Amino acid sequence: MIRLTKSLGLPLAFLLITLFFLHLGLERRLQQDDDSILASADSEQQQPQQQREKFLTYLPHSGLHNQRIALINSIVLAKALNRTLIMPELNLGTATYWRPTSLLPYRLDECGDESVHLAPQVKNRKLKDGRRKAWWSANCFDYRNYLPMAVDWIFDLTAAHEMGVKTIQRQDMRLDYFERVWSVPRDERNQTVVYQVMDNSRYSYQIVDDGETTTEYDISTNTKFSETHSLQQLGQHQEQFMIFNSLFGSDRLALPSGGVWAQTRETLRQEMGVSQPWVVNASRSVIGRLGGSGAYIGVHIRMGDGVFKVMQDDTMAQVRQQLIQRQHDDATLDETTLAHIQSLDAKDRLSACLGVQSSHHHHRLGLIYMTTDAPSPHTTLPHLFEEFVCLFTLGDFQDIVDSTLHLQPPLLDHRHHPNASVPTTQGEILLPLIDGEIASQASFFVPTPGSTFSGYIEHRNKRFQRIRV
Asked: What span, in angstroms and rounded, lies between the C-alpha atoms of 178 and 240?
């Protein structure tokens, strides 16, 4: 036993008392730190939902230019609702059908994945659960040529970004995307973070901006849609994700004429063109051979499917009438020149046609570029080429066609394997895009009524007319 002397006991008692107060001080300091941390955590949890980044997205379907219309509608909504746009992939292959909310996400998951679209020549592939699935299944028949691509690989998004709209490219259309990428649960818990606009019929809803005093809209309201969603009501939703099934349709958004959102949409329609480098360069090459931008007339004739096939005679009559009216005949037709040009092959015919543009103004000698879905246009539409002898199509520039066919454009890789080779498709899918760019830089453009491809070219031609002044 240690015996404490007086000289040793006093200093030790003082040391113990000092340590006791140091302990109390340290404990109080730790408690204050804990309170600060908890307060900080509570502050983050109670942060106003308006300050969180919120997102908007939708599902793709139909042909490319219907997808572009949906994309433009989504950009307008993202801007108006102050949300980041999660862009779905673009399908440059065969158009797919619209389906309701109860089906479309599942078709995209089942049919749009690499087990079907990357190798359609392989008749059967295993699905994720091990079953065999034929690519020509009734469920997936319209996805037999589904070719997913990133939006900015095709279209120029500069105008959207300059408006302050932030975009994110969705990398696949699988059902588990939001759970896998954004940690959104796939059960009833997601109702607190996801607002889904249900789409049960082809024209379920129209979105109307009723925040301005004007009652004049740029398109009719409630003409064919089952219900209306107010832009202002959508803006009240604070869920982090807002998901639409479909946004296709030029009349999907009813916006006050002359209002800010109508102007925003018109800007996007004109500015959001094809920016794919090969398409741009190939179209410039053909435009140069046609005498340059604005040196020719553009025309689109769609007649290969659906209502356009039924209406082809009416379309042809309208196109012919406009071509005659817009060229303002003020010269007598030189039959000798006409017969000479008709006797030439495509290359020499183009040179001869370019040579008579300044001296002849008869409509039969006007320089015309036509884009069409008609197979072998010279054979399918011989009467047009006979009447308009300086009419040309992309097939008359065979070197451009052949070079494009040798390309292998990249597809979005749904497999997400870092070491896997990038899936590709055939360059043929770029030919309509080249066609459209050439026609859009004509002195004026004659469309096929009701065609979204014609609509795209018309808007781009408006831009061309505006910037060339």
From this structure: 12
